[in-house]
Design a protein that fits this description.
This protein is mainly alpha-helical and 333 residues long. The chain has one domain: ADP-ribosylation/Crystallin J1 (ADP-ribosylglycohydrolase fold, Orthogonal Bundle), CATH 1.10.4080.10. The protein is built from 17 helices and no strands. Helix 8 crosses helix 10, helix 11 runs parallel beside helix 13 and helix 13 crosses helix 14.
Length: 333
């Protein structure tokens, strides 16, 4: 299990950091600026207002917030507490000048501003359509036994409710967490997809209703695209970009991330595909690569990628890995 835990944590950080330089740029700009394709970690370009503050191999708010969530769970014996999570997200945001430097996503930014001013953000969170809940949720999939679908959905809601409580955002986050969980135990990706479709149904009953498209149907369409373009990497991501989308809306980024994980089935390829997709490259990369890391474990991840991630980020990754490993042993997982 340690191999898989490391795969998820490092996979998430690798996908995030590889996707950082092209974050929220359009496809033509990405291809022209980077002279075809991104194949390694790069500094954030000064021309990119969001990425310019990051250096080669540094992860962004996706992985950073995932670690904040884990810190919050460690603080309360792995029991999600809305006040603790809100407190720690605010501490992180203020420490990193996240409000001023446009690091936060649209929903998290508004919700945390309201919490900072002692206001209840429910009117923001229940209408949320963005992917903040899903971008940081991958490690939560590590905390459950096989087929604990309802327990996982309920836990995801408790973790996410600080900033996201809508049906589509709880669904998207549950799908990513479930994909990680299912990939720990199942080697047939078709079985993993069936788990996703089940938690989609469960999660839609938990969050506040929105008029959003079906996540299950969009994932199935994205998987059709993956099967059609098998072995044609660039044609595949171009079709995803055109048909499914690569934006910050969760109904775009989660189906696209799942399809990239399904297509690649390893972190190295998934990181390349997500980085060159354009759009919300860091978030899609973080989600897709976390899933692939759960599927293969760390052994199939490029060792140089792991080395650069360790050197470029002031984080004790072993601390998080050991805490999760200890928790799973105590739970008999």
């Amino acid at each position: 299990m340690k191999n898989k835990i490391e795969g998820v944590i490092y996979g998430m950080a690798i996908g995030d950091a590889m996707g950082m330089p092209a974050e929220l740029w359009g496809r033509n700009k990405v291809r022209n600026f980077f002279k075809d394709y991104i194949t390694e970690f790069l500094d954030g370009p000064q021309e990119n207002d969001i990425a310019k503050n990051y250096k080669k191999g540094q992860f962004t708010d996706d992985t950073a917030q995932a670690l904040v969530i884990l810190d919050s769970l460690f603080e309360n014996n792995f029991i999600p507490d809305k006040k603790i999570i809100a407190k720690n997200l605010l501490i992180w945001a203020e420490k990193n000048n996240a409000f001023e430097q446009n690091i936060l996503g649209p929903t998290s930014k508004e919700a945390l501003k309201m919490i900072k001013n002692n206001l209840e953000p429910i009117e923001i969170t229940k209408k949320a359509l963005s992917n903040g809940s899903a971008m940081r949720i991958a490690p939560i999939g590590l905390l459950f036994k096989k087929n604990q679908h309802q327990q996982l959905v309920d836990y995801v809601f408790k973790v996410s409710q600080v900033t996201h409580t809508s049906d589509i955002t709880i669904s998207g986050a549950s799908i990513i967490a479930m994909c990680v969980n299912s990939a720990l135990y199942k080697t047939n990706f078709e079985e993993i997809l069936e788990d996703l479709y089940l938690v989609d149904k469960l999660a839609l009953q938990v969050g506040s209703e929105t008029y959003s498209p079906s996540m299950t149907k969009r994932i199935k369409l994205a998987i059709e695209i993956a099967n059609h373009f098998k072995g044609k990497d660039i044609e595949f991501i171009d079709e995803l970009y055109d048909v499914i989308g690569a934006g910050v809306n969760i109904s775009e980024s989660v189906p696209t991330a799942v399809a990239i994980a399904y297509y690649a089935k390893n972190v190295n390829k998934a990181a390349f595909l997500a980085a060159n997709l354009a759009g919300d490259t860091d978030t899609i990369g973080a989600m897709a690569c976390a899933i692939c890391g759960a599927y293969t474990g760390i052994e199939e991840i490029d060792k140089n990628f792991v080395k650069i991630i360790k050197e470029s980020n002031k984080v004790n990754f072993d601390f998080y890995i050991k805490k999760i490993e200890t928790y799973l042993k105590e739970k008999g997982i």
